[in-house]
Amino acid sequence: MIQLRHLEKAFPLKSGQFFALRNINLEIAAGEFVSVMGPSGSGKSTLLHILGLHDAEFQGEYNLLGHPIHRVDRKRRLDLQREHVGFVFQSYHLLDDLTVYENLEVPLTYRNVPKRERESVVCDMLDRFQIVGKRDLFPSQLSGGQQQLVGIARALIHKPAIILADEPTGNLHSDQAREIMVLFKQLNADGVTIVQVTHSAENATYGKRIVRLADGWMVNPPQA
Question: Taking the chain, what is the end-to-end CA distance rounded to the nearest angstrom?
Answer without folding.
Answer: 23
